[in-house]
Design goal:
The chain is of the alpha+beta class. It has helices spanning 3-10, 12-108, 170-173, 228-231; strands spanning 116-126, 132-142, 149-152, 154-161, 164-169, 182-185, 188-196, 201-214, 217-227. It contains four helices and nine strands. The chain is rod-shaped, with a radius of gyration of 50 Å.
């Protein structure tokens, strides 16, 4: 457009009226375009917000499921641990009951066992003093006719001292006052004493020998070896 010619041919007022009209149309078209673009952006933002809300809701749902599954897993683990503890306790009770039944069975029903004298058990318990232990022995008589039997126990504790083999009579290791290591009973007898081990001595086994007498007659000789680990009972 030749604005110089138009301005002269249209006159001053018409010319500026035309210019303002063109500017108005331009601004209007710009406004309409901006509004349309803004509307498109608002729709995209709304869609993105909706998607974000959906993702947040789904994430919350997943977290709730994870928490529920974790709780169920913890409950299952707790129940499993409780079941294992109960099973271990039941097995321990069963073992104790079997041991007690076996003990009384051997005392009251010796026909179910071999005849003769036996050291049923040795139990070693640690004491607060260094290298000091409490020792208990249960002696049984396995015979159908219960008559008093008697004798003296000769017990050696073998092991290693400073890396070399060594053994000591239990009477040498006993604390004062010493408990006599003899017996005289009809059914069973418990002998308890305490011992102190030499420094650097590693015990390995009790070696037991006794001549069994009945009615002042020697009925035979009993020998047995019981390991220290079998007799030792570590109190927790």
């Amino acid at each position: 457009m030749n604005l110089g010619v138009d301005k002269q041919s249209l006159g001053f007022v018409k010319y500026y009226a035309l210019v303002f009209s063109v500017l108005g149309i331009t601004f209007y078209l710009g406004y309409v375009t901006a509004s349309w673009y803004k509307g498109g952006l608002q729709k995209e933002v709304k869609v993105m917000q909706q998607s974000n809300e959906n993702l947040a809701s789904e994430n919350q749902s997943l977290n709730s499921r994870i928490n529920a599954m974790q709780i169920a897993l913890d409950v299952a683990n707790l129940a499993s641990q409780q079941n294992q503890n109960a099973m271990q306790e039941a097995l321990a009770r069963e073992s104790t009951l079997k041991e007690q039944i076996g003990f009384y069975q051997r005392v009251m029903a010796p026909e179910l066992t071999q005849d003769g004298f036996v050291v049923e058990r040795i139990e070693v318990l640690p004491t607060p003093s260094n290298e000091n232990y409490s020792v208990s022995m249960i002696l049984l008589q396995h015979e159908n006719i219960k008559a008093t039997i008697k004798g003296d126990l000769m017990i050696k504790l073998s092991g290693s001292l400073n890396g070399s083999p060594a053994s000591f009579d239990l009477s040498e290791l006993q604390d004062e006052p010493k408990t006599p290591l003899n017996y005289g009973f009809r059914y069973f007898q418990v002998i308890s004493t305490s011992i102190t081990l030499p420094e650097n001595f590693q015990p390995q086994a009790f070696e037991i020998v006794t001549d069994v007498y009945k009615y002042n007659r020697r009925r035979g000789r009993y020998t047995s070896v019981i390991s220290w680990d079998e007799a030792f009972n570590q109190i927790q």
